[in-house]
Write a structure and sequence with these properties.
The structure is a single chain. The protein has one domain: Rossmann fold (3-Layer(aba) Sandwich), CATH 3.40.50. The protein is α/β, with parallel strands linked by helices and about 240 residues long.
Length: about 240
């Protein structure tokens, strides 16, 4: 079963839905996402601290704020958002992922609002923080997807995205090596759907937002995924209203 929506690619939703039961296994099919999470959270924390003028030592910097994780899977990033104090909502196109996310959150004692659906379902809601990590390369209509994310953003809100860059390096690392060696499930990526930083920035700016930061994500064999000035493999983008 998949949820219909203009931005949802049913085949992508079905593909990731089949991985739902394995999502929280750090050595399973989502192992790469587990390894990505520290860098994701480090980047996110740096951006919200800088933009909202927060104390980096604060343990619950999102207390009193609403956060939305779009394409949340089984909640690998949504749960940390809740632990940082946010009133967290997780949205995913695959109902199987949402079911797995709810079970895991319940086991952790976390109150998270998980929903199966698409960004088009958020017409009347606004969030202080909207994140969507490694998702836009899987949607049917990237422009409409960014439009939905922007529409869900509160006036003083922050939008944080991450996605692979469309370069020879990303094709080699993510598809030839990553999928070829079984580090990620075969068929996860379509290199032609990757967006360059310029293309993603243009979509964001078309929706009345200003890009305030772009930072690369690189892989260091010694330490794993690290933030970098090199955007060739993967990158983060932060935007807010002009």
């Amino acid at each position: 079963m998949t949820i219909a929506g203009a931005t949802i690619d049913p085949s992508e939703a079905a593909f990731f839905g089949k991985l739902a039961a394995d999502w929280w296994d750090p050595k399973g099919s989502s192992a790469m996402l587990h390894r990505l999470n520290p860098a994701r959270l480090g980047y996110l924390r740096a951006q919200i601290d800088a933009i909202w003028g927060l104390d980096p030592r604060e343990r619950r910097p999102l207390a009193g704020r609403k956060a939305l994780d779009v394409g949340c899977g089984a909640g690998l990033l949504t749960e940390p958002l809740a632990r940082l104090g946010a009133q967290a909502t997780g949205l995913d196109a695959a109902p199987e992922n949402i079911a797995a996310a709810r079970v895991h959150a319940d086991g952790q004692g976390l109150a998270i609002d998980y929903r199966a659906g698409s960004v088009e379902d958020l017409t009347a809601e606004r969030f202080d923080l909207v994140v969507s990590m490694e998702v836009i390369e899987h949607v049917a209509d990237p422009a409409a997807f960014i439009g939905g994310l922007a529409a869900a953003l509160a006036e003083d809100g922050i939008l944080i995205l991450s996605t692979p860059n469309r370069t020879p390096l990303s094709k080699l690392a993510l598809i030839t090596v990553g999928e070829g060696l079984g580090m990620v499930p075969k068929g996860t990526h379509d290199h032609t759907k990757f967006l360059t930083p310029g293309e993603l920035s243009a979509l964001v700016e078309q929706n009345g937002l200003e890009v305030v930061d772009t930072t690369g994500l690189s892989f260091d064999p010694r330490t794993g995924f690290v933030l970098s000035s090199n955007l060739a493999l993967d990158y983060f983008l932060t935007a807010r209203r002009r």
